[in-house]
Structures are given as C-alpha cells and as structure tokens.
Amino acid sequence: MHVWKARADAYAVLTTELKQLDADKQAGQFNIYEAYLSKMILDTNMAAQEAGLATAMAFVQNAPQPTRRREEMVAGVVSKCLAATKAGTRTLGLELLLLLSEVDTPGPVVTGVIEGFDAKQPKAVAAAVTAVREIVRAFGIKFVNLKALLKALAKPFAHKDNAVRAETQQLAVELYRWMRQAILPSLQDLTPVLLKDLESQFAAVASEPLPKQARLLRSQQEVEEFDSAPAGAGPHASDDANAAGNGDDDRAAGSDAAGAAAGIDAWEFADPVDITKKLPDDYHEMVASSKWKERKDAIQQLHDSLQKAVRLQNSPGTGDLIQDLGKKIADINIIVATVAIQSLGLFASGLRQPFTPYVHSTLPALIERSKERKQTVIDAIRQTTDAYFAASGCDLLAVGDHYFTGATHKNPQ
Predict the structure, then answer these.
(1) Bridge partners (DSSP) listed for residue 273
(2) What is the DSSP string of 351-393?
(3) What is the DSSP string of 256-310?
(4) Is 341 a residue whose pLDDT tops 80?
(5) d(C-alpha 138, C-alpha 209), whole Å
(6) How confident is the prediction for the chain on average, in pLDDT?
(7) 179: Cβ contacts below 8 Å, ≥ 6 apart
(8) In contact, 30 and 68? CB cutoff 8 Å
(9) Residue 154 in contact with residue 172, Cβ under 8 Å?
(10) Nearest to residue 98, comparing CAs of 135, 44, 69?
(11) Are the beta carbons of 38 and 72 closer than 8 angstroms?
(12) CA nearest 34: which of 65, 5, 77?
C-alpha cells in the first residue's frame, strides 16, 4: 500500500471517530489529535489532503475547544488549499474557513486569510480575496475588523494581475452591499479610473435591500435553539434547529446584521487626518488679509481638505485653525462667513468629542449671526449647529445655555 493511501485511510478512520466522540466526556481525546490538524491540511498528496481536510472539519464541528489551533489551520488552508489544483480541495478549504468562523467568530479567520494577500502567486492572492468575500457574504461585517480589512485592500487593488484586481473589486462590491456609502472614504486613494469603475458597480447594486446574515454563528444557533424550544423541553429538544438555522431570512440575527449595516459609521474605522499639514505656509496670513478674495480662497482650501477627511486628528495647531474660523463667522463678506461656518461644522464632525471646548467659544457668534437674512448663511448655521450637537454627544446641556441666551436677543431674527 502506498504511504499516502495509508495516511488517507487513517484520516478517514479518525474522521469517523471524531464524529462519535462525546465532547463533554471525552475531551481529552480531542486534545490528542489537535496537534496533527495542520499537518493533515498540508499533506503533500492531494487525495490524502482532502481526507485530512475532512478530518479537520470533523474536529472543528465536534471538539469542545475547536479554535485552539485556528491560526495554524487558517494558515495551512490559505497557503495550500484555496488555490489548489483540485476543485474538491478548494471547496473543502473554504468550507473549513467558514466552519472556523461559525464555531466562534469570523474576525480572526479573516485576519489570517488577509495574510494571503501577500502570496507570491497571483492565483493564491485571488483565492484569498475570494475567501474573504465569501466569509463576509455568509456572516456580514458585524464580526470583522473593518478598519484592517479596508486597509488590506490596497495591495490586491494595486496587484499587476487582472484576476486579482477583478476579485478585489468583487470583494469591494460585497462590502458596499453591507456598508453602503460608508465604504467610499476608504477608497479615495485608488486611481480615478478604478474608483469610477467601482462607483459604477456600486450603483448597480445600490437599489438592492440591505443583506442579512446568511449563516449563524454557533453562539447565535444556541440562542435560537433556546428561543424555539417548547416550554419544559429537555436540553436536546431542539437538535434539528442547527440544520434549519442557516437559511431563514426572518431570523433576528439577520435583522440585526442588516440594522448594523444601515447605521455603520465610517468615522469609527477611518484614519485620523492631520489637517494642519494640508494647508500652505501662508494660510494664517491669508485668512487675516484685508482682501476678501484672499480670505475666501484660504478658507475654501481648508474647507475642501476638511470635506475629504472623515476623521480628524486633534494635533497642535488644530485649535488655532478653529479659532481663526470662529473670528470669521462675523466676517462682513457673506461668502467668507458662509465657508467659515461650514468649515466649523466639518471640524465638529471630524473631531467629535475633542471639538467640545470649541463649541462654547464659537457657538455664541453663530447664534448672533443667525439674524442674517441670507438663506445660504442660515442653512450653513443650521448644519453646523447640528454637527456641534452631535459632537457634544447630543447633550442639550452642553449647548442649551447659548441658545437660551440667544432667545432673549432683542432682534426677533
């Protein structure tokens, strides 16, 4: 008998044994075998490798602690299975990744698969990108480190191989289904041509309903089993729930995932931008110019940079920029005042809590300027005060005194 055949037969026997072991009473047996899992996944014979993948899946499905060797298993699947010659190996490898995600959480699995973005062979990179897409499609984005994933897309997007770039675009489209417009700030460093192509693909799926989690985590399955069990039923009354737990569009987990997608906050995973480094050296001089056109051009440049930044860094010099804008709220030129007011709102949205001290120093001037009859100014004030309120944690006490003072103003406006 060939050595590989002996290994394959041994894996098959072990697979049967793992399915029959009692996880509570025979936990020690699982501990004996877990050290060999990565070797089975990396078996050099294709037939034996498939048998080894089946054994690994049986272990993950039945072991009381199935994730202790997760990092090794994911690495093995990424390096030797996802881009394998045999379709069966590729299928089993992907299913093992999904199973490892299901028994705990997809986050660590996705982190491991992202390592495949650095593979030397283009087909291995493309396969890793595809695997991430399938994990997102199955479990959504709630359990994934979005910030790390979005950063990681830069490499496959810039890959020389067309197939890799095409798969990365498909992953981006899948992420868009869950994130909607919140994904766009993370893609701004792409080439204009690629970004335009992506936006076209996003538009094609924009009218689709928000996706729902298609596959339940084990923890979610347990909750669903408990909720669906009849009163007084024993602990095993809902054994069939696992089998039925992966396709119901109306279940709560799917609804929660869709809700999370609808309310996702791009600020949470955006990199902070130091806005002070986006301005020319003579910015402060131009803002203080006696010529309205120079003041307007300087503040407009700041405004445009702020619009491109989702999240701002509270760096030295940021306060000076905000105070300069505060002084321009009362500028005699309507255009200068309007752009300054809009820029303050962008600072509030980009900084959030660190902006709170500036609410108190600039809000009185905004309220005073609200007597302005120009609709463009009024609209800018409303948008900016809304941003102030949000930056203050929607705390009315943080801004209320200024509004109450404004309400006693002798001018009805």
Answers:
(1) 312
(2) H-GGGHHHHHHHHHHHHHHTT---HHHHHHHHHHHHHHHHHTT
(3) HHHHHHHT--GGGGSPPB-GGGGS-TTHHHHHT-SSHHHHHHHHHHHHHHHHH-S
(4) yes
(5) 16
(6) 88
(7) 141, 146, 261, 264, 266
(8) no
(9) no
(10) 135
(11) yes
(12) 65
Gyration radius (Cα) of the chain, Å: 28
Please give the full DSSP string across 172-202, using - where no structure is assigned: HHHHHHHHGGGGGGGGTTS-HHHHHHHHHHH
Distance CA(78)–CA(82), nearest Å, equals 6
Q: What are phi and psi of 42, to 5 degrees?
A: -95, 10
328 near 287, Cβ under 8 Å? yes
Do 399 and 388 contact (CB within 8 A), yes or no?
Answer: yes
Give dist(CA 227, CA 250) in Å, integer. Answer: 14
165 to each of 74, 102, 126, 194, 352, how far by Cα in Å? Answer: 23, 28, 8, 10, 36
Residue type, 215: R
The token pair at 139 is: 């479990």
Tokens of 406: 């404004």
Contact 48, 84 (CB under 8 A): no
| SS3 (DSSP) at 312 | strand
Residue type, 304: D
Residue 112 near residue 106, CB atoms below 8 Å: no
> pLDDT at residue 250 above 50?
no
Name the strand (E) or helix (H) holding 242: helix 241-244
Q: What is the pLDDT of residues 47-92, one digit of tens each?
A: 999 999 999 999 999 999 999 999 999 999 999 999 999 999 999 9
Q: What is the mean pLDDT of residues 145-151?
A: 93
- 93 and 127 Cβ atoms separated by less than 8 Å: no
CB 81 within 8 A of CB 92: yes
The pTM of the full predicted model, rounded to 2 decimals, is 0.79
DSSP 26: -
- Report which of 128, 15, 6 is spatially closest to residue 75, judged by C-alpha positions: 128
Average pLDDT over residues 345-373: 92
Which of 4-18, 181-195, 248-262, 331-345 bottoms out in mean pLDDT, i.e. has the lowest? 248-262
DSSP 8-state symbol, 395: -
Retrieve residue 38's tokens.
Answer: 């990565």
Structure tokens at 396: 């009315």
